[in-house]
Write a sequence for this structure.
């Protein structure tokens, strides 16, 4: 079955960087568009970024220029590199394929 396992979250100071990873299995990864979404405290699910099967990328405006999504089809892994982190980036980050998602990884931006 489809499995999506996120990792790489943690506590980081404002202005810092983190790289999230999502290891995928149970489906044809290289042919799939992959997404990152987040749930901030007290808010709903927000789409963050998408990478298509041909590695075309899309970002929500609030992270554009600070975040890079990438994929390694040999490792069935999608990444989210986040720089210049702000307190507003504090959230649980989920890797998604269509309606499926992993367990999430917590990112906390705080001094």
């Amino acid at each position: 079955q489809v499995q999506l396992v996120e990792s790489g979250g943690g506590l980081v100071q404002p202005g810092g960087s983190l790289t999230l990873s999502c290891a995928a299995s149970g489906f044809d990864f290289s042919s799939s568009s992959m997404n990152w979404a987040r749930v901030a405290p007290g808010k709903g699910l927000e789409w963050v970024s998408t990478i298509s099967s041909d590695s075309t990328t899309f970002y929500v405006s609030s992270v554009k220029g600070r975040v890079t999504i990438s994929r390694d089809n040999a490792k069935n892994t999608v990444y989210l590199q986040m720089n210049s982190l702000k307190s507003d980036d504090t959230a649980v980050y989920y890797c998604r394929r269509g309606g499926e998602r992993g367990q999430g990884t917590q990112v906390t931006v705080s001094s």
